[in-house]
Amino acid sequence: MAAPSSNASSSSSSSSSSLFNARETADALLEQCVAVICRQCGFDAITRGALDLLKQLVAAYWKEFLGQAARDAELAGRPRPNMNDVRRALERYGLKTVEAHQ
């Protein structure tokens, strides 16, 4: 009788690689967003340390914001947030929203 193959470890490795690439892509996108915000605020340059700190702050803000929207959806018995949940979360943070007109 042949020994079972170890496809589980190669599948796990592939999954880890995909997750790493997704995190790397998200980090690069967040860095670009923070750089655009800094430029719009009048900065011509930023140190690596300041950029990393701003990325951490933005990530924490989004995590809290999206968590609030998810909690609102959960309280309403929905598995995922909808636009009303997102709008309420924005308003809690003092951001004005505009109604979408069709």
From TrEMBL:
It comes from the Eukaryota. Keywords: Nucleus, Transcription, Transcription regulation. GO terms for biological process: transcription initiation at RNA polymerase II promoter. Pfam families: Bromo_TP (PF07524). Its main location: nucleus. Residues 23-99 form the Bromodomain associated domain. The keyword Ribonucleoprotein does not apply. Transmembrane segments: none annotated. This is Bromodomain associated-domain-containing protein. The lineage of its organism: Eukaryota, Fungi, Fungi incertae sedis, Zoopagomycota, Zoopagomycotina.
